Every structure is written in structure tokens, then in C-alpha cells.
Amino acid sequence: MNVLVIGRGGREHAIVRQFARSASVEQVYAAPGNDGMRSDAELVEIDEMNFTELAEFAAAKNIAFTFVGPEQPLAAGIVDFFKSRGLRIFGPSKEAAQIEGSKAFAKELMKKYGIPTAAYETFTEVEPAIQFIRSTGAPIVIKADGLAAGKGVVVAASEEEAIAAVKDMLEGQKFGESGSRVVIEEFLAGEEFSFMSFVQDGEIYPMPISQDHKRAFDGDRGPNTGGMGAYSPVPQISEAVIEETFGAIVDPAIGAMAAEGMPFNGILYAGVILTAEGPKVIEFNARFGDPETQVVLPKMASDFGAFLDAILNGRKFDLKWEGQAMLGVVIAADGYPGEIEKGILLPNFEELRDVEVVHAGTRETPNGFVGNGGRVLLVSAKGESLSAAQEKVYEELDKLEWLGYFYRTDIGWRAIEN
Fold first, then answer.
1. For residue range 14-28, what is the model confidence (pLDDT) as tens digits?
2. In whole angstroms, what is the distance from residue 357 CA to residue 380 CA?
3. Which pathway or pathways does this protein act in (predicted)?
């Protein structure tokens, strides 16, 4: 089979690499991809949002199916566009992608169908939002309603911080149209984890759970980022809780979408927190998480291409996973998630041994790879335990000098300290 992967980041590189390892896949194309993907795929210079050219390419290259990585083309209706042209594609329709594209939509869906989540209110004007914050108190969570590249959430420790966040979004247009409506919800305390599932025609194939690290610096300090590292499994979350999460959250969410006349296909990402009252939803996404994908997908023991081909053809599949632990550390440009400088030469990471290097924001030059974004690489290792995987990753990272870049030195600490 020929397969097309749409996207350019670390998540997409992990998807591309998994297809490249698939015995049933002859050629992987990545549109537009990044320079670091060249060893795993042929790059196609078509932007993720250029649906017409992408569809024409898929038809011309006899693409068996297209896999969409990022949320923006999904929210804009790429799946509907491809299907209208008779092309096979894995992902949710524009209508179903609202589960990520509008936090207000997701919260209303959960409320209607009794899916456990934080109490909330939705606002489009500053003054009523401020009154709600004053009456509720802090800590409190402020979320831009629309897509904000994983950065539209502020966990405010004080009322003043919460009010500033609301003003930034509603008056300052910090996230453009995505922040023209905000969801304000109660702060939930507990252990967070990511529960991702493949979904097709009502069949749900859960993946091993994972946990990412959103804060920029060690000890979960500093600003929220798109994710500084991840690991899987999450031993502090029991099998009983995983089963409860599937039964109380994942399965009902898929049922709710079908009942609303917008059946969900694709990757359902449930960001979950284990509270004193049980697991509750923090957010839903309509695609793989980043960096969770990079530590979950390589644990697949089944043939990825054969699996996708089977479920897209209406056949059930016995999906198998490895039992090993995997832990990944993100290398980010100094200043991330704020202002960063592009074009700084990366050390020769080809020297690293027994680890996987996934490219997120890099560009190849005659002198080697340079950074081309905030998060540039993810370096991961497998191990019989999380401690072994963690030790291996940091042992290798410490061999190189990362001038102009930084990474957290404690990825996995919650699991390993427990």
C-alpha cells in the first residue's frame, strides 16, 4: 500500500515511522513533513490546509488511505472533502471534530450525557466572566474555546491571574477567534493521564495510557507548553481505573457523538484526571496527542498499516501491544514557549545509541540539522521499567552539548517516585 500522512511535527514523524516499519506499506508520503522525516518517508510540498492539491496527490499516487495528524485540517473538514472525492481517509468529520474544536461543545455534550468532567460556565464578555471568577475563587481554569495549539489553557493560582487571562483572550484577542469565547471551570486536583483510542464505525481500540509533562521546567514549574516529554505506561493509574475510564468516559463519548448524529471516527484523545470522585475529563481531542504519540505508537506490536486498512474496510482487528515501558524527552529551543531563535545548530544526535530520535521542528543544512521551531526533537528509549528507560534517555542526552536548547531532566518523576 501507499500511505499519505498529513502534518509536519513530532506526532506526524512518529506516525510516519510506524507506517515505514509496516510490512504492508510500500511507500509512505508526508505532506508537508519535515526534513527529519526523509529517512522514513518521501516529502510532498503541499500545505496541510491545501485540500484540493492533497486530494489530487492522493488520487494520482494511488494512496490506499490518508492519515491526518494535526487538528487544524480536521476542524476545517478535510475528511469530508476527501470522502466527497471517493478517497479513503482516517479521521473525524468536520462536525465530529467539534469535540476538540469547541470546548463549549464538548462540555455541553458531557453535561447532556452524564460524562464526568469539571463544573463550568461559558462566557463571551469580560464583566460576567470576572464576576464568576470572583464568586468561585481560585485556583480556577480558563480555556480558550477554540483551537490554540495546546496553549489556550491557563490554570490560574489567583483571581487576578484568572482575570488577566480572561482579558487577554476576550479583549486582547491573544488566541484570535479561538479566544472569542472562554470556558471557565473548577480546578480539579489529582493524577492526570492521556487515554487515546482508535475509533472506526463504532468499534473502539484503546491504546496504552500515557502521561505528558506540560510545564516547561523541572518539578512541573514554569509556563504551560505543548508538552516537554511523556511516558507509558502510567503505573500509578490502576487497571481498574483504566477500565472505569473506558466505561464512564470513552465508550459513552463515542455513543453520545453517534446519538447526536455526528458519529466519531479517528483518534479520540481523552485527557483525564483521577480525582477523589473518580476519573473526570479535562479535555477531548480529535487526534493523537503530542508528545504522547511518540511513546505510545512505537509500543504497537501489530502491523500499523494492516490494522488501519482492516478497520477502514469494516473488518475487526486483534490489536496487540508490547509490554515494555517507553519514555521520551523533548528538546526545545531556549525561550520556549515564548520567543525563540530559529536556525541554531543542533549537536550531532546521530551519535546517540539505543534511543529513537523523532523530529518535530528541525531543518537540514549543509552543516547539519538546525532548530526550526519551539520544540525541535523528542528522544526516547524503551526499557523493562520506566526507571530503565529514563536512565537510558538521560545517559545518552548527557553525552551531547545542547547549546541554545534545553530539556527537562525529570520526565517520569511522578511514576518513578511513586
1. 999 999 999 999 999
2. 7
3. Purine metabolism; IMP biosynthesis via de novo pathway; N(1)-(5-phospho-D-ribosyl)glycinamide from 5-phospho-alpha-D-ribose 1-diphosphate: step 2/2
